[in-house]
Amino acid sequence: MKDVNVVELVIVVLLFLVVTVMGFAAARWRRAESLMHLDEWGLGGRSFGSWITWFLLGGDLYTAYTFVAVPALMFGAGAAGFFAVPYTVVIYPLVFLVVIRLWSVSHVRGFVTPADFVRSRFGSPTMALLVAITGIVATMPYIALQLVGIEAVLKSMGFTGSGFAAELPLIIAFLVLALYTYNSGLRAPAMIAFVKDTLIYLTIIVAVIVIPGKVGGWGHIFDSAADKFSATGGVILPATGQLGYATLAFGSALALFLYPHSVTGVLAASNRDVLKRNMSALPVYSLALGFIALLGFMAIAAGTKPIGTDGNTIVPELFQSSFPSWFAGIAFAAIAIGALVPAAIMSIAAANLFTRNIWKEYVHKDADSREEARVAKIASLVVKVGAVAAILFIDPQFSIDLQLIGGVIILQTLPSVALGLYTRWMHRGALVAGWVAGMVVGLWMLYEIPKKDPTGAIIKEHFGGSSFPLSKLGLDTKLTIYPGIVSLAVNLLVVVIITLILRAMKVADGVDGTADTDYTAEREDPSFRELPEPLESAPPGVAEEAVRRG
Fold first, then answer.
1. Distance of CA 418 to CAs 62, 93, 95, 466, 550, Å?
2. Which of 106, 255, 309, 524 has its CA 20 to 30 A from that of 418?
3. Please, which residues have CB within 8 angstroms of residue 461's CB and are 6 or more apart in sequence?
4. Integer distance in angstroms from the first to the last C-alpha of the chain?
5. 363-372, long-range: CB < 8 A, 24+ apart
């Protein structure tokens, strides 16, 4: 650590102190009577307007790991790394109608998590438990990956040693994050997201102006990338990779808003119009993501090398060589703070799932709102400690592998969560069977994917990526496909077949605890309740319909 850049360190620490103060002060922002209620602590009072929601969702979905991993993939693999851009473009039209209906039914019925909705919609505690466990398992490695972004910054600043002293900045950062999240709940990341995104946009604008000028222009940048990847077709995706690329982008788009932290940001919005405006405005982040991805090609043109074998350090090293220390410090702070915002939201979302769908469902059914908030706060601390421990004591590659699995497994909740918002035709027993079938197929396909080096030699037998060779199914082709799409298709097929069978056998499929009017309710509607408890009976205005359904 003797070569730590003091200027960069001072700037990062100062900006970190600023957001720390903001994190604790957020408890008084849009102050509630009490934060000891999940609607207040875990959803910010369900009152965020358009701007706050835009920054919150942007800070939630476009993470620090995105900032370092996407350019690293472009640097190492070329065009394939650009998949993150099209998937964040197509996602918003896909989820536009889904999140609007989810917001309405959740506000009428007091749902805090997607598992709350599934339990009420299908009358299935089992399916709700599977959705909750899937969400927690998929989110945990995602939190750990945010630490990978901070680690990359620390390495470039000179914290390249080993042992407790080298990891101390990382531990302090997450300890402080844990404390102000415990204190302020979702208000903390919502307030800090303003700073995070301002720094991110400032860094990107400066980077796309300054770095191309230093390395010889955009023409030289693309020429350098084409030369590096000339053996595999240059910067154009080869024909054999196009199916895998398209299915990965489409599958990732379907998965993104199924993650519990995405749902948390959606449910914190004050009304449906806020979400409609945000679904139109959030693609601005995708434009920024396109420039972030191109940082990988800029690094090739600049001759930047990663630190050791850690490819995630390529962007910090590019900034280190391209900017004066004071601005490199700002850019590093942008990445570090960019890790804290999504990590806070993810831990809150995981804590909400544990509290509502495991603790209250199976441990203490009579838990009141204060106990729920208390349990959620403790759970969020445990989640963050687990994320730090995963990075300190386990190979970070393990977290990356788990995050890869996370996208496939979260897709298995699509039938019950997303399709369930439009139809209750699916039998609850069939949803469970489809989830099991999708999980088995998805995990088997991921297990069968080897990781290869640039020469084609296998360096890892299993869980080596997201491109499943169709040749393993006996097909005579070099095409690959994203396992998430195949496993989801199997899931849906099983759901349809088992539903037909169970309905033919007249097997009871539970009671729908929602009403048709719930899905289109506006904030002004009589069925809307401020800070409601989950309802066992119909809300005001829909009593007759609910009784008829029962």
1. 22, 14, 9, 23, 23
2. 524
3. 450
4. 66
5. 369/36, 369/37, 369/38, 369/533, 370/36, 370/37, 372/37, 372/38
CA distance 66 to 531: 34
Query: Residue 540 has what pLDDT?
Result: 44
Tokens 């998929």 map to which residue? 138
Residue 481 three-state SS = strand
Residue with tokens 């421990």: 389
The DSSP element (H or E) to which 322 belongs, if any, is: helix 314-322
Domains in the chain, CATH or no CATH each: 15-394 (1.20.1730.10)
Q: What is the DSSP string of 500-514?
A: HHHHHTT-------S
The verdict on pTM exceeding 0.85 is yes
| 3-state SS, residue 270 | coil
What's the CA angle centered on 250, arms 277 and 116, to 5 degrees?
Answer: 60
Query: What SS3 class is residue 407?
Result: helix
**What does the alpha-carbon distance between residue 157 and residue 166 come to, in Å, rounded to a whole number?**
12
Q: Is 201 helix (H, G, I), strand (E, B) or coil?
A: helix
Structure token pair of residue 27: 């408890």
Q: Which tens digits make up the pLDDT trace of 473-497?
A: 889 898 999 999 999 999 999 999 9
